[in-house]
């Protein structure tokens, strides 16, 4: 199942409709799962077994090859997907150029994630072998590997919630200090600034005094997508 | 969770936070946290600041808008149990979906976003 971390679900809807998914596709406009499970970026995923026990903590969950990419037909949707895929590939190539502000982040991603098909391969192994999969963790291991929640991170979740409420209820400028405080308190949690920076409307005068790639490099490019421990 | 006041009746506290005040403390599912003397005042309300302090749940405030938000419990890991909590989220059509409805099947939950 998928969960969209979008304050404005209309921003996510075109992707949802293009994917034409058959699995439960849910929305979490308050980003409540970020603090609940430690989902500090997207894509992040975790595994739940048949009994409702988490058997793998939240971690970076790149799919490798997406269904869209592997579906080639003459349908208009597929042509759209191919066009989107070409655009995405061009964007990735541009980001990797040495003069791009994203270059050090792309480099860290390559170092930390490596082969992007590893996570999907581990999921397939779990589906085939169940509890015997080498990637399944005991309840104690799942808890131990889940993200620490110091008071600063808990307060960041509360600040982010106030920021979101103010943004939704027509106070976008007043939301900015709360969003900024959430990032300051929990700097390695990229779900918060990625969402709040995406809400910036220059016409309203929202300004964080920085931009996302600069912030990622300042905090540490390796924190954006931490190493996959598998 | 968002709050518009810091004095809540035990019923309001339960509804907004999921924590139920019982003789043994604040309880949610199998977990009970002793509250050590924090009791409803004469008017039947609980001081949320004292409750939050005891629970390790920080409070963010926007006094200008009369808004407070109670953060999650801090001090340990985000997961205090490997049992997945009851989660209900809407689908894109606004229909609530209970995660528990997928019991009996393996679930890979993947978060994504347009940003």
Briefly characterize the structure:
The complex is a heterodimer of chains A (230) and B (115). Chain A has 230 residues and is mainly alpha-helical.
Q: Percent helix among the residues of chain B?
A: 10-25%
Averaged pLDDT of chain A: 90
User: What is the string of SSEs of chain A from the N terminus onward?
Assistant: EHEHEEHHHHHHHHH
Strand order of the largest sheet of chain A: 1-2
Please bin the fraction of helical residues of chain A: 40-55%
Mean pLDDT of chain B: 93
Quaternary state of the chains:
heterodimer
Poorly predicted segments of chain B: none
Largest sheet of chain A: 2 strands, parallel
How would the global form of chain B be characterised?
A: globular
- How many distinct helices of chain B? 2
**What class do helices, strands and sheet pairing of chain B give?**
alpha+beta
**Through-space gap between termini of chain A:** 22 Å
Overall shape of chain A:
globular
User: What class do helices, strands and sheet pairing of chain A give?
Assistant: mainly alpha
What is the ordering of alpha helices and beta strands of chain B?
Answer: EEHEEEEHEEEEE
| Radius of gyration of chain A, taken over Cα atoms and rounded to an integer in Å | 19 Å
Per DSSP E runs of 2 or more residues, the count of β-strands of chain A stands at: 4
Explain the layout of strands and helices.
The complex is a heterodimer of chains A (230) and B (115).
Chain A: E1 2-4, H1 9-19, E2 25-27, H2 32-37, E3 44-48, E4 54-60, H3 67-70, H4 76-96, H5 103-113, H6 118-129, H7 139-145, H8 151-168, H9 172-185, H10 191-198, H11 212-219
Parallel strand pairs in A: 1-2
Antiparallel strand pairs in A: 3-4
Chain B: E1 2-3, E2 7-8, H1 10-17, E3 20-22, E4 25-28, E5 31-33, E6 46-47, H2 48-55, E7 59-62, E8 67-70, E9 88-91, E10 96-98, E11 107-112
Antiparallel strand pairs in B: 1-8, 2-6, 3-4, 4-5, 7-8, 9-10
């Amino acid at each position: 199942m998928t969960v969209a971390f979008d304050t404005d679900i209309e921003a996510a809807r075109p992707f949802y409709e293009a994917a034409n998914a058959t699995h439960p596709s849910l929305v979490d406009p308050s980003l409540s799962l970020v603090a609940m499970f430690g989902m500090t970026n997207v894509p992040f995923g975790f595994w739940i077994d048949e009994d409702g026990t988490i058997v793998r903590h939240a971690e970076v969950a790149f799919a490798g090859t997406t269904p869209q990419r592997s579906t080639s037909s003459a349908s208009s949707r597929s042509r759209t997907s191919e066009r989107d895929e070409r655009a995405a590939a061009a964007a990735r190539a541009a980001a990797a150029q040495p003069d791009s502000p994203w270059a050090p982040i792309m480099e860290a991603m390559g170092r930390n994630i490596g082969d992007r098909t590893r996570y999907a391969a581990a999921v397939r192994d779990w589906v085939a072998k169940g509890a015997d999969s080498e990637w399944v963790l005991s309840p104690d291991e799942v808890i131990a590997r889940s993200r620490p929640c110091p008071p600063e991170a808990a307060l960041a979740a509360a600040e982010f919630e106030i920021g979101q409420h103010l943004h939704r209820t027509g106070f976008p400028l007043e939301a900015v200090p709360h969003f900024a405080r959430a990032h300051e308190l929990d700097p390695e949690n990229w779900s918060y600034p990625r969402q709040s920076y995406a809400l910036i409307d220059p016409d309203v005068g929202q300004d964080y005094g920085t931009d996302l790639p600069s912030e990622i490099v300042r905090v540490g490019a390796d924190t954006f997508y931490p190493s996959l421990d598998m | 969770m968002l709050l518009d006041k810091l004095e809540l009746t035990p019923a309001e506290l339960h509804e907004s936070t999921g924590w139920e005040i019982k003789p043994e403390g604040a309880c949610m599912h199998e977990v009970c946290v002793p509250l050590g003397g924090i009791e409803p005042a004469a008017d039947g309300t609980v001081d949320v600041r004292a409750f939050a302090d005891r629970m390790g749940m920080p409070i963010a405030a926007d006094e200008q808008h009369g808004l407070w938000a109670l953060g999650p419990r801090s001090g340990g890991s985000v997961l205090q149990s490997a049992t997945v909590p009851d989660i209900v989220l809407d689908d894109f059509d606004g229909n609530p979906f209970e995660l528990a409805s997928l019991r009996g099947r393996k679930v890979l939950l993947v978060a994504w976003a347009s940003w």
